[in-house]
Design brief:
Layout lengths: L6 H4 L9 E4 L8 H13 L8 H12 L5 H6 L5 H15 L8 H17 L6 H10 L4 E5 L3 H10 L8 E3 H4 L7 H10 L6 E4 L5
Helix pairs in contact: 2-3, 2-6, 3-5
Amino acid sequence: MKRFANASDWNSLTTVPIRVVFFDIDDTLVDLRSAALNGFLAISGKWLTHLHPERQTEIAADFADDGAQSYERYMSGDLTFLGQREVRFQRVYQMAGILSPAGESYIRWASDYEARVRESWSPFDDVKAFLEGLKKRDIPYGAVSNNTGEFQREKLQAAGLGGFHCVIGSDTAGAPKPHALPLLAGCSELKCEPGNTLYRQQSYK
């Protein structure tokens, strides 16, 4: 099933003309879940060989899907971005019945994991065609994310996605989504009215 309708269909679905489109990034434009799964299994798979393959997949999925619910703690300011990842990491190693690396060993793991994830950043199959459709219709588009703006700009570039007129992160917007501030910041930067703006999001992360 297609994640995006044709760009030419969107105005027909609204009662007002769409002047600007904003997107979330993670698991909307970029398949972050697959990148997280691949990265985790590439680094930690060798420690899970005592488990049935199905269980290995379940543990990797718990890490990728944030079974620890630590991202919400990051969003509320209780954890740093790296801290929420460590909480997820410790949880799944406990699920696997193995001792999780700590200190310098964890820092090395986190560095290796980040490198693997970045190698796996890629867009969903229909994203590039949809963005091209917006370009052809002269509809500018931007991205609004709960991660930092600089990090997300790097992600879009690595995934081969260009043409964004702005990338708004929660670090500069003043608050994370679902607060309205990030989207209002995007509207302000592109000088568009919120009522003529469309926003597409698959994930709250």
